[in-house]
Amino acid sequence: MTLEAIRYRAGSLQILNQLLLPHQTAFESITSVQEGWEAIKSMKVRGAPAIAIVGCLSLAVELKNGPQRERDELVTFVCDSLNHLVTARPTAVNMSKAAAELAEFVVQQSKEDNVSTQTLQESVIGWIEEMLEKDVSDNKKIGNFGAQHILSGISQGKVTILTHCNTGSLATAGYGTALGVVRSLHSMGRLARVFCTETRPYNQGARLTAYELVFEEIPATLITDSMVSIAMKEKGISAVVVGADRVVANGDTANKVGTYQLAIGAKHHKIPFYVAAPSTSCDLSLESGREIVIEERPAQELTDINGARIAAPGIDVWNPAFDVTPTSSSQGASSRSWGSSCPRSYRLHSLEG
Ligand code: MRU
Description:
alpha/beta; 2 domains; four-stranded mixed sheet; binds 5-S-methyl-1-O-phosphono-5-thio-D-ribulose
């Protein structure tokens, strides 16, 4: 059985409410762009690829079930909806990249002679539906490339991986990016164990990654974020594999806060550090990580756990949801990203050749 977080068929979208995991498995219907936006903003659905897919699918279902629109009205509705969806979360590039491409597509298609409104609408829905299938096949390729690469210098025996946040089926259309690499290693019989971080403050690792790993019976151990250095020192970590929310032109990578310290620790311990990301997470329009907007989330995510205050009243809080790992911080630890179709210039430096 595979874990699924997005259930879609023409005109119908349901998402697994990730806020309730691991205690409850509850799917919720998304019937409009506004509901899609709210699900992303409230983190019922999260993870860079999943944000873009659910955002665009919310538009597909609203189009399918909504009123017939005139051609210009349809183009305006699609573009306005995409502009709105982009505002839900700023750091992951996937939604804004999909929005730019789909907006260009609908404008171009609308200029075709004799294109009917019905055909135009169907082509927009078809464009969105392809995102789902492409993401799963990209992830499987990333998983296989990544696993083969990690195993390339190791002719036999098993490897131990350290990963961060949630990059699996729950963060994508299925299979996962960094967790896809872990899945591939496991299915090849070459994974000894994966260590996953709790991922404070939102606990994507403890709640979601641990849930996926237990669900699939992959040998896994949960650690807190502050244990990564000792794990690198004492637990025979063969490689660190993380996902990405935005990889910019020079290779700087925004990912869940805590990734930067993993890269520094990996460099110190001479452990290979890898970013597993599809080309939908690459943003060549930005030169360096300094230009990436980092989302800051509510203080309550740090001060409270399950609604109960744990922090001393009155303390100031800083809660950046992501950090940027400069490409240089992982050099020396042999790092590489396996973007499914990223051109070479997107890749982080590999010191292996
Ligand atoms: O705040 P989140 O849960 O959306 O952050 C998710 C991450 O940072 C993931 O590592 C990243 O999106 C890659 S998901 C394949």
